[in-house]
Amino acid sequence: MSDQNDPMAEIRASFFIECEELLEALQDGLSEMDEGSEDPETINVVFRAVHSIKGGAGAFGLEPLVRFAHRYETVLDEVRSGRLSPDHEGQKLFFQAADHLSDLVRACRDDATVPEDQSQALLDQLNGLLGEQEEDTEVTPEEFEPLGLSLDLPDLDALPAPALTTYTIRFKPEAELYETGNEPQMLLRNLGELGEAQVSCDTSALPSLAELSPETPYVAWTIRLQTAAAEPEIREVFEFVEGLCELTISDASDTEESPPAETLPDAPATIALAGPATDPVEPEEAAAPSPDTPRKSGSGAAAKSVVRVDLERIERLVNLVGELVINQAMLSQSLEQAGLSPHSDAMNGLEEFQRLTRDIQDSVMMIRAQPVKSLFQRMSRIVREASAAVGKEVRLVTEGEATEVDKTVIERLADPLTHMIRNAVDHGLENNEARASSGKPSEGTVRLTAAHRSGRVIIEVSDDGSGIDRPRVLKIATEKGLVPPDVQMTEAEIDNLLFMPGFSTAGKVSNLSGRGVGMDVVRTAIQSLGGRINIFSERGKGTTFSISLPLTLAVLDGMVVRVANETLVLPLNVVVETLSLGPGDVQMLRPGAFVVRVRGGFVPLYDLGVILGYRGPLQDHDRGIVLLIALEDGNRAALVIDGIEDQRQVVIKGLDESFYRAPGIAAATILGDGQIALILDPSDVIASAGSIRPKDRALAERMVEHG
Amino acid sequence: MSDALLLPPRLDLPAAAPLAQAFRERLGADIAVDASQVTHLGALCLQVLLSAAITARRRGHALRLIAISDRAAQQLAQMGFTPDTLAEGTP
Q1: CATH code for the domain in which residue B70 is found
Q2: Which Gene3D superfamilies match (chain A) (predicted)?
Q3: Domain A372-550 fold
Q4: Closest Cα partner for A468 from A538, A529, A550?
Q5: Which residues of A touch B58 (CB under 8 A)?
Q6: Which of A38, A138, A372, A436 has the greatest number of CB atoms lying within 10 Å of its CB?
């Protein structure tokens, strides 16, 4: 992170954090515009986002960013003032420009090389938009907005305007104002939009041409503004140039002449707010911030107030709470051992303590939670780029953007989701002709949804394409030797072949996917987050990939079990059922491979003690205890254990890299008695056992299904 | 009198210095300015125009705006000028 000793670096870092927020607001606004929002506030938000980025970038001397943002902003300003209404292509360009802007922000942040060529190409396109529009407005000048501005019209005061206040605004730009790409003319125009403005320019300081330095500001303006707006609104016009100009705003309703000379940075809002405040503004809105920290404006008043906290501090808090949970478990265990009555005050107090710990833990986890919105916005960019690359018209529909997920999960989801979205666009959706011939709208739809469902987060990527061509998938898998040629497979099993390493259905390698990184990588990434991924596909209707993730990576609802006197923890969500074995329940498929009868069907049986190397194979499974486990691929497996101890929340403690990465061991936890227990990843355990061949599993599963 | 000085479409910060130079070269005579192509008139270039107008007057010459685009006129008005007051160099 930033160097603690360098205040500038800190401000810079906070600027880039701010940029992320602004870029998010920009994306939101553009999407709203794209959906046909007529709300003038939308374009204002978009404009201000770009403007704020430009302002901040100027303060840090990020030249390429300023240049690009400036032109982008100019075009947006045309839209804002109603002189330009972007068509579909224009909107696309705006999105591209926003994407590029975020590239530039990131490049500047990471001191990476700025993609100048791309900047130039987009700038040319943006200019093209401006050029076109200029012709338009020149041939149809009647489309101009009324100017709302008058010069030398003394009878203006006769207007029936009881609620109007007259302000005298003195405004003198400084050189930095121009250097940061701001333009007094625009400020004056925006000011004019607030009401009736009489603008007079003070040219007394202007030297003769010979002495004139063209980039030095000499002139100042005095504006008499008659408006219903309150002073904060006037200040908002100058928000981005605060500190870059001398600005005095005074209520001239009674003191017509000689306004008190005050400059903004020293005396914020000392003038009484005359006239009705049409837009109540929070006190800090009127305070003057340093020019180095451009703020989110306008919508800022309605936005939630937030505090930025270093992630490290949160991590520490999470760890401490973890310790607290462990400690509480220890305490409760020692109280139990002391033989206290469950109705004693101590035990009652402990119960309360437990509840509080759980609440604290949930609250701490909430701190780490973030809406998936930022992730989804990144995906909309992927869709735009991917659809352009393969020449398909694709619309991304997102739902549940407010769903909150652990920050780490969000970060680690970006890659797999990108891959899935690309897949959906490239493989999932048919090309335009195929869509037309099957009677679908030519524009394909990719849906990206997030929702909380029973303590987990479900993220789905679905397309309305042709669905999985199962015979072809099976054929390819057979050709590649991934499955034996004569095997009979269910639809779900065929779908799951997509997740096998080295599988690719794309007939030809497009420039988008088919780079050898397949769905197996996606599945591995999801699994490493403690998640599962499933496919649902209907031929002709589309395919849905559904990811189910735990809410957090820090705690886990676990089942504490005993195997050969070792205590182990299994994630509770994979345990479907617990069984107590009776005589004849276990049957041998072949030596070393057993199946267990579960309600007439058979499930492959694995002995946890043997797989983990704790003990040799059991001679007799009678009266053994078995956990029925749901695997990611929809199959089931039975794990033989010695006993179940408890079901409880455990705090996940990562195992240091220096430990040998043992297959099947996901992490560790500390139990109430201070003992360390390993947390298992059941599917990894079973994969490492690997004794059941797919053929056997298919056989066993079918026995279950038909049984 | 020389030909009218045709102003470029964008009169923003980068345009200010070249514009001042162009005026300096024409100070010996009446200056005719053609602002018909202007789509953006920024304050810095306004300063140059004003200074040129004042300087020309002091030297006994005139600066005339022979054409101005609607956009430029509008932007001029927003900054408190009309084409006439601009040519006179007085607000």
Answers
A1: 3.30.750.24
A2: Histidine kinase CheA-like, homodimeric domain, Histidine kinase-like ATPase, C-terminal domain, HPT domain, SH3 Domains
A3: Heat Shock Protein 90 (3.30.565)
A4: A538
A5: 208
A6: A372
- Domain range summary for chain A, segments of one domain joined by +: 7-143, 154-285, 311-369, 372-550, 555-706
Q: Which listed CATH number (2.40.50.180, 3.40.980.10, 2.40.30.260, 2.40.160.40) goes with A555-706?
A: 2.40.50.180
ipTM of the complex in this document: 0.89
Angle between helices A7-34 and A40-59 (to 10 degrees): 160
Considering the four listed CATH numbers 1.20.58.100, 1.10.150.130, 1.20.120.160, 3.90.1300.10, the one that applies to the domain covering A7-143 is: 1.20.120.160
Q: Which of A212, A216, A225, A244 to mutate to test the interface with B (most CBs of B within 10 A)?
A: A212
Nearest CA in chain A to B68: A138
Name which of B19, B43, B78 is nearest A219 (Cβ-Cβ): B43
Chain B residues touching A136 at Cβ < 8 A: none
Domains held by chain B: number: 1
Written as six digits, the tokens of A219 are 């002139």
- Strand A575-580 versus strand A625-630 pairing type: antiparallel
Q: What is the pLDDT of residues A280-334, one digit of tens each?
A: 444 443 344 444 444 434 443 445 677 777 878 888 888 888 888 888 888 888 8
Question: Residue A146, Cβ neighbours under 10 Å: how many?
Answer: 5
CB atoms < 10 A from the CB of A316, how many? 11
Among B40, B41, B79, B85, the strongest candidate for a mutation testing the A interface, having the largest count of A CBs within 10 A, is B79
Question: CA of A314 to nearest chain B CA: how many angstroms apart?
Answer: 46
CA dist., res. A82 & res. A90, Å (int) = 14
Q: Are A179 and A201 in contact (CB under 8 A)?
A: no
Quickly count: other Cβ atoms within 10 Å of residue A452's Cβ.
13
Number of residues in chain B:
91
Asked if A300 has any chain B CB less than 8 Å from its own CB, the reply is no
pLDDT in tens, A31-69: 888 877 777 788 888 888 888 888 888 777 788 888 888
3 state DSSP class of A111: coil
Q: Provide the percentage of residues in chain A whose pLDDT is more than 90.
A: 2
